[in-house]
From TrEMBL:
PANTHER family: LD18447P (PTHR43804), PEPTIDE CHAIN RELEASE FACTOR 1, MITOCHONDRIAL (PTHR43804:SF1). The keyword Cytoplasm does not apply. Pfam families: PCRF, RF-1. GO terms for molecular function: translation release factor activity. The lineage of its organism: Eukaryota, Metazoa, Chordata, Craniata, Vertebrata. It comes from the Eukaryota. SMART domains: PCRF. GO terms for biological process: mitochondrial translational termination. One of its GO terms (cellular component) is mitochondrion. It comes from Phoxinus phoxinus. This is Prokaryotic-type class I peptide chain release factors domain-containing protein.
Amino acid sequence: MSAALMRILRRVSPRLQTVRICRSNSHKTEDFLKNEAVERRVRRAMDEQKSITARLERGQMPETDRRALNQTLVEASRVINAFEKTQLALRELAEIQTLICNTSAEDQQMLELLREEHGELSRRVKQLHTELMETLAPAEDLDHRSVVLELASGRTTGGDVCQQFTREIFDMYQGFACYKHWDFELCNYTPADYGGLHHAAVRISGDSVFRWLRFEGGTHRVQRIPEVGLSSRMQRIHTGTATVIVLPQPREVDIHIAAKDLRIDTFRSRGAGGQSVNTTDSAVRVVHLPTGTVAECQQFRSQLKNRDTALRVLRARLYQCIMGQQREQTHSARRQQVGSRCQSDRIRTYNFSQDRVTDHRIGHVTRDIKGFLRGGEDLEDLIRILQEKHDLLKLDDIS
């Protein structure tokens, strides 16, 4: 008898009907465990555990070999333990679901306890699913990096549509950063008319930021009847775009920029007026002469702080360029199936009239567009699906 069922039985004696059995709601995790690549990886871990245990029990070997074998054994055991814990939680969840479906409607106390246990087990299955995926497909080097995220409005006839949408996308990522407890540091922000946004750059730091945002780079398309601006007078659906660029923040050892390769210009901040605007040359533009890459910052009153921020953005852009060249040289099937994440790719459409967000890479549809744009759980769930697709393909390469 499962631990979950024992907890329920200790709290109340149920009156059960044995007429019908309901299926579990955890099909996603069940399908994941039956995935061919997952099964291959788990079988390999079991074979490694059996083989290494036998070798370690046989007798003498050099200490370096023993340490290496022990390390492999630990990794194999982590995979097996995570897999078995997920299986166990799924079985317990199925038992609780069956009890819910077979319990008399009059037994409200029992149903309440069962539903409470079901909710706790569902959250545990979701957590174990994530932990198992991370165990099967270890994190990549860039996954734990901070990022520089840039947004730019599209250039179409309905420019105000693009600019308003770009601000909403900016707010979505700011909301997501708050939801994930990340630091959201503004590097540049160029507002537009009617509360819109031309361009913005932010540095987001925290736990595994690049892993969560790596698939957000690309063209985001909006279809809507504008609420404000010149386009709103026409009262018809307009199409606009916003471009999102996600740059992993390099470490000092990743890229070296020689001082002689930089040209640093200062200019007066541009803005709507007020104190410290157009009064001092505090804004900074940095040009990398060998590549022509440019970064600028006018967000702060301090010229030194603007210079440091512009250099940080420049380093991220140069690093992304280098990484892009390396990815082209090591082109794989995984990139074709998940998406290259090139910034020209149209990755998502936000259709306001149909209250629908569609991710074109995986065909995933989310309703409640305003909830999605708050940058909370809905966005997290979509990104998690993209992560899993990427990790399964990576796992297929590994196994």
